[in-house]
Each structure stands twice: as structure tokens, then as C-alpha cells.
Amino acid sequence: MTAVDVINLRREAVRQVDLPDSIYRAEVKAHIVHEIVRSQLNSRRSGTADTKTRGDVAFSTRKPYRQKKTGRARMGTRRSPLLRKGGTIFGPHPRDYGFRPPAEVRRIALRSVLSDKLAAGRLEVLDVFPAPEIRTRAVAEAVRPWESRKVIFVIPAADENLEKSARNLPGIKVLRAAGLNCYDLLNYEHVVLLEGALPLIEERLLKR
Fold it and tell me: What is the pTM (predicted TM-score) of this model?
């Protein structure tokens, strides 16, 4: 176990919490993290590129010219890929570029990223983040101690007030523990875990 300070919104230590070494002191496997991030980015691709084959091109089915005594090659249709505005051979069509690595590989990647953030001093544990109403200014004041860096706050469950209040703040992201992923963790310089999210993260990453 690794003892880490639990801070409040003023970044004052209020107590300590023990984090399991199997999650936060794990071996950092960069090649697995790379694979997981690549799978996430591939899944976001629209995959809507499309081309017309000879069966899709709008031309008459009439033979363009007679077959013999022209000195030219035989031609049966204007839709041929050999002609201008004809169909495309082996062109792209809508497809899904995503691939899904095994669950254990995804867990290894998350453990690697969390361990790297903690080792670099860029992971903190926050006691609570109250948001009694949807008010961007109040959240902006609360996150002022982290204003010099991009910060992602990981919360235990849905919090409409906090999520809506923070969504327009540049460099700030509020993410539910259920949606914890490598791309978002790496995309933000600093990770702040709410204390209530720790058991959910442990339950997810210590599965067998």
C-alpha cells in the first residue's frame, strides 16, 4: 500500500488514504498503453469514406461503340474503371476501424497510466467537490489552484451540477469513474481522483 494525502479544494491535506500498489505502483507498459490509445482513436473514426463502383455509376447500359472494325479495344459499358468518370476499383467504403483489446489488456493499460501519473507527482486525491447548483463561475473558482495545468477530475457517479458547470471551462474535464480511460488520462496533465471514486477504480482494475 502507498499512503497518499487526501486534500480539499484549497489543496490542504486533511488525512491520508492507502492506495494499492498493484494499481498505483504497477509496471508501466508503454506498448500496451499505445495499443489501447490507438484502439480508442480508431473507434472514433467516422469511417464514412465511400466511392462508386462500376455498379453505382450513372451511365446508360448501351454499348458505347461497335465491337469490331474500329481499331479500338472492345468496350461493353461506359461504367468501366478505365474511362473517365467510370467506377472506382477497390475504393474505400463505409467501415468500422475500431478494434477492442481484451479486458485484461485494458486494465493493464489503465494501471500503467495511473502508476505513471502518481510517480510523476501528477495524481492527487480530493475529499469532495460540492456543486449545489449549476454555476460555472463557482466551479472555476474551486479549480483555481489547478489553473496552470490541464486537469481531469474523476468522480464516483453522475453529478449533473458539477458536470454541466465544468463543461465550458478550458483545460478542465469531469469524468465518471465508470468511463475512466487511457486517452483522457494522458490528454490531461494532472489527474484528481475524488475519494469516493477510489473503491470503484479498485473494483474495476483488480478484477480477475
Answer: 0.79
